[in-house]
Design a protein that fits this description.
- The chain is mainly alpha-helical.
- It is built from 4 helices and 5 strands; from the N terminus they run αβββββααα.
Length: 138
Amino acid sequence: MDYQATADHVISCYAPIQVCYRCNCTAGTYELGHSRSHAHVKERKICLSAPPRGKASLFTLLHEIGHIVAYQADYSSGVPRSLAEYNATEWAKLEMRNNLHMSVPLKITRSYNAYVRNKIARGLRRGLKKVPAKLRHL
C-alpha cells in the first residue's frame, strides 16, 4: 500500500492543511535533531518527522489532523489536554476505519491509550480537579 498517497488524499480532504517534515520549529521537544509530531492548529499546519510509511505513521498523521478538525481536540479549546488527545485519537480511529477502510492495530490503540493516561496523570499532578467523564474508562 502507498501510505504517502493515502496521506496526501486525507490531507486534501481537509484542506487547507500544510504538512512539513523534519521541521525545526520550537513546538515540541527535540529528539534526533527534529521535533516530535505536532499540530499548529491555528495555522492548520502539521509537523512530522517523515512521510507516512506504514499504519503507525499514517495514524500519527491522522491524529495530528484530528487536533485541527475534531471537536474539542485543540489544546486552546478550553478542555484538558488529556481530553484533547483522546478526541484527536478517537477521530483518527474513526477516519482510519470508516473512511480509509483500514483496521487500527491493537498496538497503536494501546500506545495512544497509554499516552492519554499519561496526560491524565500529568494533569492531576498539575491541578486537574477531576478526570473528564469520557476518560474514566482508561
